Amino acid sequence: MAKKILIKKASGEKEIFSIIKLKKSMMSSGVASGVAKRVISQIRPKIKPGTTTAQIHRLAFDLLKSEDKSYAARYNLKKAIMRLGPDGFPFEKYFAALLEEQGYETKTNVIVRGKCISHEVDVIAEKYEKNIHAIIEAKFHSHGGGKTGSKDALYTYARFLDIKEAWNIKKNKGAKPREATLQSWLVTNTKVTGEVKIYCGCVGIKAIGWDYASEGDNLQELIENRGLYPITVLISLNHQQVRDLLHHNIVLCKQLINQDTLLSRLGFHGRQIQQLYQEINKLFGS
User: CATH class for domain 229-283?
Assistant: First the structure.
């Protein structure tokens, strides 16, 4: 029987290192089974008691990068999302871009008057043909191990109630469609606690976390199923290039296709542009 090794999670908790779990995390991001086995065979001897999950992730990422950049990019998706904030592009704007790709009209960082006070709403999303009118609280975490908790859900709902009161007054005056209903969403790039799941289900908040959704796709599925990868996943881009592109509101990899003029203006050379396009095409499997 293999010796059990205790490793340290980002939260500080300890857990037994699992080859099955590591392989599953790679394969769920599209890594071929044979490649995952080769990577694990190289990682396994390096795992010692106290090794952190961040160190294991880094080992896997570096080995996958040498195998295939697209494998490494998809495997690193969660950390790529966490890079958005430090790189100067708010998470709420990225989530709004995801919604726009699904046909929503969105606005970000909007001051909305409630019955009692005014509130800054991270995202307002509307899809008129489906009668969806949502105010969205986006909770961003820049480090692993954090979870969105009940305090965030309680705040989200309290603010929603105040805004909804004002919304209903406008609706009664004919300023909003009679059949329209206002929804409350709580979105985060990390996990949500069990209390959040219970509370949001109880009061009717639509909750979307990294690996959880009260309905529809969770955040990871929303990104991967539609190929809506942020440019921070791309191995070919350095930190400054990412910042420059985000400054020009290029946040999704698909927005980079056929952007030769912009890329040249930002200092990319012909060969760099071709390598970037090749990485993007491979990321999308084409």
Answer: mainly alpha
